[in-house]
Amino acid sequence: MGEINHFEYGWITPALSYALSVLGSALGLVCAGRIRTATGAGQRAWWGLLAAWALGGTAIWAMHFMAMLGFAVGGTRIRYDVPLTAASTAIAVAAVGIGLAIVGTGRLTGLRLLAGGFFTGAGVAAMHYTGMAAMRLDGSLAYDPLRVALSVVIALVAATVALWLAMTVRRALAIIASALVMGIAVNGMHFTGMSALSVHLHEGRGAATGTEVSGLLVPIVLAVVFGVVGLVYALLAAPSDDDRAGAAYVAARLDGAPSAAPAEPAPDPVGLRSRSTLAQPGAPFPSRRSTDRRS
To answer: Which tens digits make up the pLDDT trace of 233-263?
Structure first.
């Protein structure tokens, strides 16, 4: 039986994995909020793709890989199968994308939420155990069925809550609080699944095939960094509601069509509008006598 250490580098890896899950959850919630305000199918698909990458790629998969950096088994080195590792990434992003597509089209109902949560949660669990199957070491892996089932239940519940938050949360403070809770749920699912693992070392130990974690670290870190920067840039570059309203107003004025004036009038610090009838179209010009009587 191989001795398992989940925190080989102390609390650095779990802290970083939690930070990644919170960051990805926050970006994903903001992108999911843009799905609700999108004006066309193309925009909804674009923001859905970004939300799937933020939640599936950063909050879930990057968190998983960061936590795995602290995983070690005494007596053997750990390597990874690159195609399976890439497949686990695709599973996470696709699962979140399917869930967002289910809950983000049409009116949000309980049935849609449960269906989206089921697909997303099952995908998250599949991502985790696919990533574990990508490990190559001088031993065989075994799992406690009860803890595996518990990790799947946590994934299903966490995914359902995450999709509900993605479709309902709008305020900045609520997004931050939701991201903190989602980070706890994602990490809880991961470490519950890891606690179900046991490793039986082989008698004749040979060199395990696969890629060292150091060979995967640099490209994965670069992918995460560029992905986060791209998400932030996309959010900052996207026009806001005020920008769209202003553009529509200017376009209507240029076309000569009647349009509503901006909703908020210019500031009136001294109360001039309350003293003048000029603000009302068609009102007669006030005479000096009536003005003096008013004052």
So the answer is: 888 887 655 555 555 656 666 666 554 555 5
Q: Which residue has the tokens 């509503």?
A: 260
Instruction: Dihedral sign for Cα 225, 227, 232, 236, please.
Output: positive
Closest CA to 162 of 104, 107, 105, 220: 104
Per the CB < 8 A criterion, the answer to whether 65 and 92 are in contact is: no
- Alpha carbons 277 and 284: distance in angstroms, whole number: 8
Q: Does 273 score more than 50 pLDDT?
A: no
- Residue 72 phi, psi (nearest 5): -145, 150
- Find out whether 78 and 36 touch, Cβ atoms under 8 Å: no
292 versus 1: the higher-pLDDT residue is: 1
Scanning the chain, the segments in alpha helix (DSSP H) are 12-37, 41-52, 63-68, 82-104, 110-133, 145-168, 172-195, 213-237, 241-255, 272-275, 288-294
Instruction: Tell whether pTM > 0.85.
Output: no
CA distances from 233 to 27, 31, 57, 129, 172 (A): 11, 12, 17, 33, 18
Cα(122)–Cα(285) distance, integer angstroms: 72
60/241 Cα distance (integer angstroms): 30
Q: What is the pLDDT of residues 64-109, one digit of tens each?
A: 989 998 888 888 888 899 899 999 999 999 999 999 989 877 788 8
Q: Would you list the domain boundaries of the chain? A: 4-237
pLDDT computed for residue 121 by the predictor: 92
Strand order of the sheet with strand 135-136?
135-136, 79-80, 211-212
Is-contact 51 32, C-beta < 8 A?
yes
